[in-house]
C-alpha cells in the first residue's frame, strides 16, 4: 500500500497482522493474570494510545481506565533523564492493581519515574506492559512484565509511535528513511 505515510518507511519491522496477533496474546495473558480482579489500566499518552485501545479490547475483564501524559526531555530521538507530568491521574489509585501501558521501553527513565510515582500514590501492585522493548537503550533498571516485541537499537515509528508527531497512524511498525530525519518539522 503506497501513500504519503508509507512512502517515508524504509523497512517494516512488524506488520499490522503480526501486531494484531501479538496484542491478542497479551490481552489473553492479562485476562488470565487478573481473572476475577478489577485492574486499573493506566495508558501513557500519546504513544500508547493505539496499543491501549486494541489491548483492552483483547482483554475481556472488568477494568478501569486512566490516562497519563508525560514527556521526557532530550532531543527528538533520545530521551534525557527528566520526566514531566503533563496530564495526571483523575482518580485515587491507592490499593489498586495498576497495569501501566507504554509504547516503548528504551532508557527506562519514563517507566522508572512512573513506577516510583505510582508506588508513592499507594498502588497495591504495578504491572508494566510495553508494546516494544529496546533493551540496548537501558539506563535505569526497569523490566516490563509483558513485552509485545523486543526491538533492535533503531528509532521506530507507527502504531502510536511518532517522529516529530507524525506517523502515529501508521498501522505497522517500521523504520523511517534516513532522509526523513532532520527534515523540518512538518507540523
Ligand atoms: P524511555 O524513557 O524509556 O527512554 O523512553 C520512553 C519514551 O521514549 C517512549 O515512550 C517514546 O516516547 C520515546 N522513544 C524511545 N525510543 C523510541 C523509538 O524508537 N521510537 C519512538 N517513536 N519513540 C521512542
Ligand atoms: Mg512515549
Brief sketch in words of this structure:
21% of the residues lie in helices and 34% in strands. The chain has helices at 16-33, 49-57, 109-120, and strands at 9-14, 40-45, 64-75, 78-87, 97-105, 125-133, 146-150, 156-157, 173-176.
Lay out the secondary structure.
Elements: E1 9-14, H1 16-33, E2 40-45, H2 49-57, E3 64-75, E4 78-87, E5 97-105, H3 109-120, E6 125-133, E7 146-150, E8 156-157, E9 173-176
Parallel strand pairs: 2-3, 2-5, 5-6, 6-7
Antiparallel strand pairs: 1-9, 3-4, 8-9
Helix pairs in contact: 1-2
The structure holds guanosine-5'-monophosphate (5GP) and magnesium ion.
According to DSSP, the number of beta strands is 9
What is the radius of gyration? 16 Å
CATH level-3 fold name of the domain at 16-74 and 92-151: Rossmann fold
What is the class of the domain at 16-74 and 92-151 in the CATH system? Alpha Beta
Overall geometric form: globular
Approximate strand percentage: 25-35%
How would you explain this protein's 3D organization?
With 187 residues, the protein is of the alpha/beta class. The chain has a domain at 16-74 and 92-151: Rossmann fold, CATH 3.40.50. It is 21% helix and 34% strand. It has helices spanning 16-33, 49-57, 109-120; strands spanning 9-14, 40-45, 64-75, 78-87, 97-105, 125-133, 146-150, 156-157, 173-176. The strands form 2 sheets. Strands 4-3-2-5-6-7 form a 6-stranded mixed beta sheet. Strands 1-9-8 form a 3-stranded antiparallel beta sheet, covered by helices on one side. The radius of gyration is 16 Å and the shape is globular. The model has no long low-confidence stretch (mean pLDDT 93). Bound molecules: guanosine-5'-monophosphate and magnesium ion. Magnesium ion binds at residues 44, 47, 103.
